[in-house]
């Protein structure tokens, strides 16, 4: 499988100048290629092919006095910048045609030298090398000191040099390794309900308190932001203040990432299957809870669970975001009315008293098992039905659908929002 390993690097002053030149040349090639294709479209000319674009903005441009300095950096860096542009266009076209699922992808935009993040990529063609003394040899830049936190499992196929907003440099290696040996089989499976008061509530009753790293650092960040706002725009002091703010945010992000790695590794080791709810983080970030949602970092945590499950032979699955895990009784399956956020426990008419988050985690576990363990992999939940052409409105109180699997959430009343309502036939 393909893995990425990141390491901190410490280039000297001359190497920093060489990297800055490489960042600038890659940015210019990217922008020239984007400008050439936009110009061809405006003039109703054919789409510029990848090979023709490479010849135009790299090979021929090096021969001109305006772009002669492109020859001072590795040609692989320029080719990879153009490959990024080509990939951005392919993703954009695939999004327009519907071939690419998910949110719509915007067309590529011009890169700015003021961007907070700068990156270049070296492939095997550039003949970069990890030396015996632990240094990283980059063409036309030199031997860069690397802080090795762990050895690489195999020879890297490419390395990306990244400079972040805090002024730190990183080397990101891509390596291809055989699949890791599966961890010992566990009998336990777990459902996880993610939240803000408790970061994660497991179906076995365990609760992980939300650390709220951003809230803890709010006082220091507020002071640094105030200092930044007092600096004159364009001054050197303002640039220094920007770096201080970026370093403070980078520290918070690093602490959060380390904590999530530890928690996700523990969950994967202790359970054979992990089920989580497919939350719409983008939508939640538009609400008044946006700052707390960003501070929680649900998307990065579930991403860690997913790739670690693949790596170590575990099962990972997402439950439909419209599944009413909170409103469903984990004992009888009855779906109650909407529950306010300040209500942390509720009683079902069947007599059961539920902790809001624990009951949701139990329901997520049961729903994940139902999707995975049904006979011959058949679909448990019916797909969304297409409304008849003559129907003008989808009525919210349409007939209810019950689940087809016996013993899995048979609702006694109320709307099951996880399934599509039955449509009325159009009146003649």
Please render the helix and strand layout as text.
Elements: E1 2-10, H1 13-42, H2 50-59, H3 75-97, E2 118-123, E3 129-130, E4 136-138, E5 142-147, E6 156-163, E7 169-176, E8 189-194, E9 198-202, E10 207-209, H4 213-216, H5 218-229, H6 236-270, E11 273-277, H7 281-284, H8 290-296, H9 298-311, E12 315-319, E13 345-347, E14 353-355, H10 356-373
Parallel strand pairs: 8-11, 11-12
Antiparallel strand pairs: 1-5, 1-7, 2-6, 3-4, 4-5, 6-7, 8-9, 9-10, 13-14
Helix pairs in contact: 1-2, 1-3, 2-3, 5-6, 6-9
Structure keywords:
alpha+beta; single chain; 7-stranded antiparallel β-sheet; 428 residues; 37% helix; 5-stranded mixed β-sheet; 10 helices
Explain this structure.
There is one protein chain. With 428 residues, the chain is an alpha+beta fold. 37% of the residues lie in helices and 17% in strands. The chain has ten helices and 14 strands. It has helices at residues 13-42, 50-59, 75-97, 213-216, 218-229, 236-270, 281-284, 290-296, 298-311, 356-373; strands spanning 2-10, 118-123, 129-130, 136-138, 142-147, 156-163, 169-176, 189-194, 198-202, 207-209, 273-277, 315-319, 345-347, 353-355. A seven-stranded antiparallel β-sheet has the order 2-6-7-1-5-4-3. The chain has a five-stranded mixed β-sheet with strand order 10-9-8-11-12. The protein has a two-stranded antiparallel ribbon with strand order 13-14. A hairpin with a 3-residue loop joins strand 4 and strand 5 (142-147). The longest helix has 35 residues, at 236-270. Residues 390-428 have low confidence and may be disordered.
């Amino acid at each position: 499988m393909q893995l990425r390993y990141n390491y901190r690097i410490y280039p000297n002053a001359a190497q920093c100048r060489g990297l800055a030149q490489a960042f600038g040349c890659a940015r210019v090639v990217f922008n020239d290629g984007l400008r050439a294709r936009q110009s061809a479209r405006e003039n109703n000319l054919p789409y510029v092919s990848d090979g023709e674009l490479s010849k135009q903005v790299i090979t021929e441009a090096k021969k001109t006095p305006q772009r002669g300095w492109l020859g001072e950096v590795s040609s692989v860096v320029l080719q990879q910048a153009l490959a990024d542009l080509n990939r951005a266009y392919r993703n954009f076209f695939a999004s327009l045609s519907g071939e690419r699922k998910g949110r719509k992808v915007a067309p590529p935009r011009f890169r700015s030298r003021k961007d907070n993040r700068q990156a270049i990529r070296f492939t095997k063609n550039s003949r970069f090398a990890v030396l015996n003394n632990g240094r990283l040899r980059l063409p036309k830049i030199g031997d860069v000191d690397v802080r090795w936190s762990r050895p690489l499992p195999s020879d890297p196929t490419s390395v990306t040099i990244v400079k972040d907003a805090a002024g730190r440099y990183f080397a990101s290696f891509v390596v291809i390794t055989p699949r890791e040996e599966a961890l010992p089989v566990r009998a336990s499976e777990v459902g996880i309900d993610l939240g803000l008061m408790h970061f994660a509530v497991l179906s076995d009753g365990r609760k992980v308190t939300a650390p709220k790293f951003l809230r803890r650092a709010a006082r220091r960040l507020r002071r640094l932001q105030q200092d930044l706002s007092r600096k004159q725009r364009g001054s050197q002091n303002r640039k220094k203040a920007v770096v201080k703010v970026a370093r403070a945010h980078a520290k918070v992000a690093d602490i959060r990432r380390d904590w999530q790695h530890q928690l996700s590794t523990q969950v994967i080791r202790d359970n054979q299957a992990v089920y989580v709810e497919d939350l719409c983080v983008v939508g939640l970030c538009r609400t008044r809870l946006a700052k707390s949602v960003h501070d929680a970092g649900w998307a990065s945590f579930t991403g860690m669970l997913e790739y670690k499950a693949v790596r170590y032979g575990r099962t990972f699955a997402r439950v439909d975001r419209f599944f009413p895990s909170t409103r469903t009784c984990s004992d009888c399956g009855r779906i109650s009315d909407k529950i306010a956020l300040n209500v942390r426990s509720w009683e079902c008419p069947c007599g059961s008293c539920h902790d809001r988050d624990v009951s949701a985690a139990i329901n997520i576990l049961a729903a994940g098992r139902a999707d995975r363990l049904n006979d011959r992999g058949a679909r448990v939940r019916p797909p969304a039905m297409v409304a008849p052409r003559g129907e003008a409105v989808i009525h919210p109180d349409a007939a209810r659908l019950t689940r087809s699997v016996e013993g899995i959430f048979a609702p006694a009343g109320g709307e099951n929002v996880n399934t599509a309502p039955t449509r009325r036939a159009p009146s003649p």
